[in-house]
Write a structure and sequence with these properties.
The complex is a heterodimer of chains A (27) and B (461). By secondary structure, chain A is mostly loops. Chain A is built from no helices and 1 strand. The relative contact order of chain A is 0.37. Helices cover 41% and strands 16% of the residues of chain B. Chain B has 17 helices and 16 strands. In chain B, the strands form 3 sheets. Chain B has an 11-stranded mixed sheet with strand order 12-11-10-9-8-7-4-13-14-15-16. In chain B, strands 1-2-3 form a 3-stranded antiparallel sheet, with helices on both faces. In chain B, helix 1 runs antiparallel to helix 2, helix 1 packs across helix 3 and helix 11 packs parallel to helix 17. Chain B is globular, with a radius of gyration of 24 Å. The two termini of chain B are 34 Å apart. The chains are: A little secondary structure (27), B alpha/beta (461).
C-alpha cells in the first residue's frame, strides 16, 4: 500500500506589475 | 521545514528546502505531522488508534513510517535550510548589471481611474511624455550596463504608453537595429488600458511585443466604477471589442488580461468568469495596491472572501481542464519541474539592481512603484546610479534579510515579496506586507494543488 505519492545565471525573465511562476532560461 | 495542508481533496506536503511536493493519504498526513516530535513507537500507536475503525493495520502504519524515513534520508522530507550563507550570492555576482527597464513613456493618461497607484498616470508630478532621444539613451544605458546578459527586457509603461505610440515604435526600431551587433535579445512588453488600440497598434504589438498586458477588471459595472475617462464615462464598452480583436490577431497567446480587484469586488471570481465568457483565457487578477484608508483598500473582512475565491478559482481551472477549455491564471502557473534556481528564489525580483524604472526625463527609480518618491531616485540614464545608499538597500533585500521570512514555508516561492508593497505598508523595503503575504500563501497553496491535480489527471489518461 503506497501512502505517499511524490509528485545563478540571471537570464530568467524579471503580468501583474512572485518568483514561483517564472521559468529557468539557462544546464 | 515542511508545510502541510488539505485542499481540493488532496493532502499536500511540501518539503520547503528541497522543493519536493508530495500528495499523501490520511495516515501519512498524520504521521508526518508528528514524525519529528514523537518517538516512533508512540507515533505509530497514536495513528493506529485513530484509524483502527478504518481497516488500517499496524503493518500499514509501520510501512508508511518507513516510507517517510526513506524520503527523509533521500533529502525529500524535513530537508534542512542551508541557503542563508548563499543568500546574497546572485546579486553579488551580478552587481552593477542591469537587464530590465520599465520605460515610462507617458506620465499622462486618457483614463482617470480613482484607484490608480500612479495618481492617474502622473506619479504625483507633472504630465510628461518621453522623447525619442531620452528613450534611445535609456536603451543605450541598458545595453551598456547589461554585462554578459543576452536577454534584455523593456516594458512600455505609463500612464498610458499608447499616448506616445510614435516614440514607442521608433524605440523598438532602434533596439532592433542594434541588437544583432550588440549580441542582445530585446523582449518588449506593453501595458495598456486599451482606449487607443487600433489596427496599427495591433499589427505593431503582434509583430514586436512578446507580451501585452491589457487592463480589464471583469464585470462591466465593476470595471466602470473605477476605470472612467475625464468626463466620468466608463471605458468597458469601448475597450472590450478592441481587446478581443487584438487577442484574436495574436492567436490567443502571449497576452494577459490584467484586472484589479478592490473592496468593491472581493468576489473577483465573478470577474474572471466574465473574462472567460468574453473569450479571454490568459488571466491575471490582482489585489489593489493603494494608500491605507483609501475607500478601495481591501479590509480584514474581505480576507476570508478573497481566500475562498482563490480556492474556487482553482476548482474552476480544473473543471475547465476536464471540459477541454483550459485557461491560465498568472499566479497559478507554477512550474514544478522548470522553475527558477534557488539563487533566483532567494534574491527576488531584482528591483533597484537588475530592474529599474525610467521616467520621461530619464531619472532612474528602483521600480515603477517607487517613481515619484524622491528619496528613492537612484540617478539618471546619463550619469548612471549615484544614490548608492538606496541601491545598497535593495541589493541586500532577500528572503533572509527579513526575520519574519526566515521560517516561512512560502519564502522560496515569494522570494521575500515585493519591496514596494513592503515599503508602502511598513515604511521599510525590508518590511513585510502581511496582508499581501496571506494572499500570496493562499495562492501558492492553490497553485500547487492545481499542479498535483493535473499530474494525477495526466497519469489517469
Amino acid at each position: 500500500m503506497e501512502h505517499i505519492k511524490t509528485v545563478g545565471c540571471g537570464e530568467c525573465q524579471t503580468a501583474c506589475k512572485g518568483i514561483a511562476n517564472q521559468k529557468c532560461e539557462n544546464k | 521545514m515542511i508545510h502541510q495542508y488539505k485542499l481540493g481533496g488532496y493532502n499536500v506536503v511540501l518539503d520547503v528546502c528541497s522543493g519536493a511536493v508530495h500528495a499523501v493519504d490520511d495516515v501519512a498526513y498524520d504521521l508526518i505531522s508528528i514524525y519529528q516530535t514523537t518517538e516512533k513507537d508512540e507515533a505509530v500507536r497514536s495513528v493506529c488508534l485513530k484509524y483502527k475503525d478504518k481497516g488500517v493495520t499496524e503493518k500499514d502504519v509501520l510501512s508508511c513510517y518507513d516510507e517517510i524515513t526513506y524520503l527523509k534520508d533521500d533529502g525529500q522530507l524535513f530537508t534542512e535550510d542551508k541557503f542563508e550563507p548563499i543568500a546574497g550570492k546572485l546579486k553579488q555576482k551580478t552587481s552593477g548589471v542591469i537587464k530590465a527597464l520599465c520605460l515610462h513613456v507617458a506620465h499622462t493618461c486618457n483614463l482617470n481611474c480613482s484607484y490608480c497607484f500612479a495618481s492617474q498616470g502622473k506619479y504625483h508630478g507633472d504630465r510628461a511624455v518621453m522623447s525619442f532621444e531620452t528613450g534611445k539613451r535609456a536603451l543605450d544605458f541598458l545595453v551598456e550596463n547589461s554585462g554578459t546578459r543576452r536577454n534584455l527586457e523593456v516594458d512600455f509603461f505609463g500612464g498610458e504608453p499608447l499616448l506616445n505610440f510614435d516614440v514607442v515604435k521608433k524605440l523598438v526600431a532602434y533596439a532592433r537595429s542594434i541588437e544583432k551587433q550588440k549580441n542582445k535579445n530585446f523582449r518588449f512588453t506593453l501595458t495598456t488600458n486599451g482606449m487607443l488600440i487600433d489596427d496599427d497598434v495591433i499589427d505593431f504589438a503582434n509583430k514586436e511585443m512578446s507580451n501585452v498586458v491589457l487592463s480589464l477588471d471583469g464585470r462591466k459595472e465593476i470595471h466602470d466604477r473605477f476605470r472612467v475617462d475625464y468626463a466620468g464615462r466608463g471605458s468597458w464598452e469601448q475597450i472590450v471589442p478592441k481587446f478581443q480583436k487584438l487577442v484574436k490577431a495574436r492567436g490567443g497567446k502571449n497576452y494577459y488580461m490584467r484586472g484589479t480587484f478592490t473592496h468593491a469586488n472581493p468576489d473577483f471570481l465573478n470577474d474572471i468568469k466574465v473574462m472567460l465568457d468574453l473569450g479571454f483565457t490568459e488571466l491575471s487578477m490582482e489585489p489593489v495596491v493603494c494608500a491605507h484608508g483609501d475607500p478601495s483598500e481591501l479590509t480584514e473582512e474581505d480576507m476570508p472572501i478573497v481566500k475562498e475565491q482563490y480556492e474556487k478559482l482553482a476548482e474552476l481551472m480544473l473543471e475547465k481542464d476536464r471540459e477541454g477549455k483550459p485557461f491560465t491564471f498568472y499566479h497559478y502557473m507554477i512550474d514544478l519541474s522548470g522553475g527558477p534556481c534557488v539563487y533566483k528564489r532567494i534574491s527576488g525580483c531584482g528591483s533597484g539592481t537588475e530592474y529599474m524604472a525610467v521616467t520621461p526625463w530619464g531619472d532612474l527609480y528602483p521600480c515603477h512603484q517607487f517613481v515619484g518618491e524622491e528619496k528613492f531616485k537612484l540617478g539618471n540614464i546619463y550619469d548612471g546610479v549615484s544614490n548608492t545608499e538606496i541601491q545598497s538597500e535593495f541589493e541586500s533585500c532577500n528572503v533572509y534579510a527579513r526575520e519574519e521570512c526566515k521560517n516561512c514555508w512560502a519564502k522560496l516561492y515569494c522570494s521575500g515579496g515585493c519591496a514596494a508593497n513592503a515599503y508602502h505598508s511598513t515604511g521599510s523595503v525590508k518590511g513585510v506586507y502581511k496582508y499581501g503575504c496571506e494572499l500570496f500563501k493562499k495562492r501558492m497553496e492553490c497553485a500547487i494543488m492545481v499542479a498535483i491535480a493535473r499530474n494525477f489527471a495526466e497519469e489517469n489518461e
